[in-house]
Amino acid sequence: MIDALIIGAGPAGLSAAIACAKQGLSVRIVDEFYRAGGRLLGQLHQEPNGTWWNGMEEAARLDREARAAGVEIACGVSVFNVVPSSSGWIASTTEGEIETSLLLIATGASETAVPVPGWTLPGVMSIGAAQVMTNVQRVRVGERGVIIGVNILSVAIARELQLAGIQIDRMILPPVSTVTGKAGFPEAVMRSLLRVAHLAPSPLIRWGSQLMKSSWMQRLGVSLYPSQGFSMWDIPIQLRTAALEIVGTNQVEGVRIARVAPDGQPIPGSEQIIPADFVCIAGGLSPLAELAAIAGCPFAYVPSLGGHVPIHNDRMQTPLPGLFVAGNITGVESAKVAMAQGIVAGLSMADAHGALADSAELENAIRQVGIVRQRATIQFHPDIDEGRATVGQLALASTGK
Amino acid sequence: MMDAHQLIVCRCEEVSLAELLETAEAYQCSARELKLRTRAGMGCCGGRTCRMLVDQVIEQATGHSPSHTIPLGYQPPVRPISFQTLGGRNR
């Protein structure tokens, strides 16, 4: 029987383990991947102040700190069930059952698929898969690729692929359909892209973002949008072009594209096939809720956080005794927010165990989450604060019962 | 050229978008009923790719936006595992 079991060795899980172990609890982390770090492992981007965020280094640092604090990290272990017990929780894993008094689920988020005709061909992958292959496995995904889906994540990863010497021919939208949501509408895409305009290497885009604060300007912006799109780091981003189909006999050979009107509808006669040997599909992220769901945790549907999230309070406690959550499972935000939440969860677990030396430390950690969120370079969604407030109210309501 | 509606949504069970849309329109049902009628989300991956898409089809067909309850429930095991592991005999 251990004091705390943490599922997920990403930024939230590792930070929680360190905070918790330093308060004297016995802590174990399990993770499916063969090395610790979670999505940190793939991250490499330049901050607006010019410094580089190197996720690989951050992961190594957290891993070292956790081991130094006495945390046991087991990689390559999957958890397939969690059930409450008389003394806490039991997790069923591929390495047997683990009994713990406190459980933290820090499983992050999973990518949302965006089906495009031809997406089952070999050579089509999610943008996250391309990131892992490139930055973690150091495997070349192809020679010349097209990215379907323009969002904050795909723009950042396009840059990472480019840094690794892989040619990105262009970034375009998916076709408008039932299963592509807002991703096929130029105006909606432009609006979300403007939130990262301050990261853009081109002053033109930065000015554009200042001009386009109003929705009519955005509509105008989309209709006046240059037909070849604009470029970030010389990668053409075309919001008025959509992929109609990925073509190829036995593998990806190209993409059939068309110009689209501001409402996302293809313009007749504008179709052409562009050659490509790989395609990345970027549909965004949604919290990976499966284990929290089978644990019996109540959920809230909050679109600004990425979908269904487990209800939790600012101490990262769920309404279920001894069950905590942290990181992207609580809403899609940056790795830095996940780390800050992890520290809160770790201290909160120590408190639940009666081992927290100084309660001011927990209060400070809670405040720190808000500070990190305000300073975030990349805001995944403009209404994150509102979404967080909704979950907070639901958490209060659930304890009031 | 491929008809967009023939595109596969659930890859494990090879369920097309057309089949999902027609079923959802005809029965005006829940995501769970759509899953049971078409087998979308019941393949070996456990719906890890198409779960969200099945929810989206229902939203489009019935106009119901999701409630706080997760539309398609989760059951253990949430990962494909061997009978040996399930029986508690590891490796």
Verbal overview:
Chain A: Its cofactor is FAD. Chain A: InterPro entries: FAD/NAD-bd_sf, FAD/NAD-binding_dom, Metab_Enz_Cyan_OpOx_G3PDH, MnmG_N. Chain A: Residues 3-166 form the FAD/NAD(P)-binding domain. The complex is a heterodimer of chains A (401) and B (91). Chain A has helices spanning 11-21, 55-68, 127-136, 152-163, 186-194, 203-211, 215-223, 290-295, 335-352, 359-374, 384-400; strands at residues 2-7, 27-31, 44-46, 52-54, 72-75, 79-85, 88-93, 96-105, 109-111, 124-126, 144-148, 167-173, 230-232, 235-247, 254-259, 272-275, 278-281, 285-287, 299-302, 307-310, 323-325. By secondary structure, chain A is α/β, with parallel strands linked by helices. In chain A, the strands form 5 sheets. In chain A, strands 10, 11, 12, 13, 14, 15, 16 and 17 form an 8-stranded mixed sheet that branches. In chain A, strands 1, 2, 5, 6, 7, 8 and 21 form a 7-stranded mixed sheet that branches. A two-stranded antiparallel sheet of chain A has the order 3-4. Chain A is elongated and about 70 Å long. The mean pLDDT of chain A is 90. Chain B has helices spanning 17-27, 31-38, 51-62, 83-86; strands at 8-10, 15-16. In chain B, strands 1-2 form a two-stranded antiparallel ribbon. Chain B starts with 7 loop residues before the first strand and ends in a 5-residue tail after the last helix. The interface between A and B is large, with 40 and 34 residues.
Give a quick precis of the structure.
By secondary structure, chain A is an alpha/beta fold. Helices cover 33% and strands 26% of the residues of chain A.
Q: Helicity of chain B, in percent? A: 25-40%
N-end to C-end Cα span of chain B: 48 Å
Count of DSSP strands of chain B = 2
Number of separate helices of chain A? 11
Strand order of the largest sheet of chain B: 1-2
**Which chains have the largest interface?**
A-B, 40 and 34 residues
Q: How would the global form of chain A be characterised?
A: elongated
* Strand count of chain A: 21
Q: Which spans of chain A of ≥5 residues are poorly predicted at pLDDT below 50?
A: none
